[in-house]
Specification:
Length: 338
């Protein structure tokens, strides 16, 4: 069994940890770090009898996850404060949403940027308010700025000049150039208020967003963590009405694959229709488990294929080629450093 497979087995059933020797533990911890799942694993194994060496690693991971949670909640508070004048709730996405709502998916979760969703109509006012509150653009290049504003589902990324925290302001959950076109109006209309100017997506929309992020907008890097999000959301809140809501957003294919793979890897309780993998699903599973015990990528051709796929599903080929040509020319024209 590979280290990635052992990590999945331990997340699925913490009792599997008893059979591991120290070298196997080292491999699992390394892969968990690479997949941003060490805090989640530490939470799952809390209270389990392990060696002193392993206990120290897991204790550190739990402490770090607690600090990450505190920082994420404070950043969400600051964003809501800065945008209070807009008159619309700030809808939290991904990990920050999970911890703000106290969901099981947030337990031990790694959180990087603060991701939010706002109506597209308020983006100019949001930009001005955030700039006044200390956020600055990460990408000063004029072409990068235009690329985000014209083709992406979010503003160019921002960073706070004092706290050094990244903020991604979305107006929908997939690039407008992608084939599926989620109903952003419905996402916002059905958001669930949390108080303090904050909200989260509805339960099914959180599941759909997680599936879209995993299978319709990327190369599956960090896929085990994102799939665990889906598992935890389903275990806690079920999947009633999920298929119908996914169809409304044009993301039935992504949700179906997410449910099948979550069941296959994490034994997520799902409807019978989602309990058997397709042949393409097995290729996706191979990509998601493509790490060795050092945390390095395995199956280079598989990873390359998914990298190419991640670009092709974001925009039509002519537009992609134009974008890559411009980036290549700009790279060649950039002055050498040093």
């Amino acid at each position: 069994m590979t280290a990635s497979a052992r990590l999945v087995a331990m997340l699925r059933d913490p009792g599997n940890a008893h059979a591991l020797g120290l070298s196997e533990w080292m491999d699992v911890v390394t892969v968990a770090r690479a997949e941003l799942l060490l805090g989640t694993l530490a939470h799952r194994l809390d209270g389990l009898a392990v060696t002193a060496e392993v206990r120290a690693v897991l204790d550190d991971a739990r402490a770090e996850a607690s600090e990450v949670r505190r920082t994420a909640l404070w950043e969400a508070n600051r964003v809501a404060h800065a945008l209070a004048g807009l008159g619309v709730p700030v809808i939290l996405l991904k990990g920050t949403a999970f911890v703000a709502a106290g969901l099981a998916a947030g337990q031990g979760r790694s959180i990087g940027d603060c991701d939010i969703l706002l109506p597209k109509a308020v983006l100019p006012a949001a930009e001005a308010a955030l700039a006044e509150a200390g956020w600055e653009w990460v990408k000063p290049d004029a072409y990068d700025d235009l690329y985000y504003r014209r083709w992406m589902h979010e503003l160019p990324p921002l960073i706070h000049r004092d706290r050094d925290r990244m903020l991604d302001v979305h107006h929908t959950i997939l690039p407008p150039t992608a084939r599926p076109t989620p109903d952003a109006t419905a996402l916002i209309a059905d958001a669930v208020p949390l108080g303090g100017g904050l909200a989260i997506l509805s339960h099914n929309d959180m599941l759909i967003h997680a599936a879209a992020h995993l299978f319709a907008d990327g190369d599956l890097s960090g896929g085990l963590r994102n799939l665990w999000d889906i598992h935890a959301l389903v275990v806690e809140g079920g999947a009633d009405g999920l298929a119908q809501r996914a169809a409304q957003h044009g993301l039935g294919f992504a949700v179906d694959r997410a449910m099948r793979l979550s069941h296959a890897l994490y034994a997520t309780p799902v409807a019978p229709r989602w309990q058997r993998l397709t042949i393409p699903d097995r290729i996706f599973r191979r990509r998601m488990l493509a790490r060795d015990g050092w945390g390095r990528g395995r199956h280079p051709l598989t990873r390359l294929a998914f990298y190419v796929r991640s670009h092709l599903i974001r925009m039509p080929l002519p537009l992609l080629l134009r974008h890559l040509w411009i980036k290549w020319r700009k790279g060649r024209a950039a002055p050498a450093s040093g």
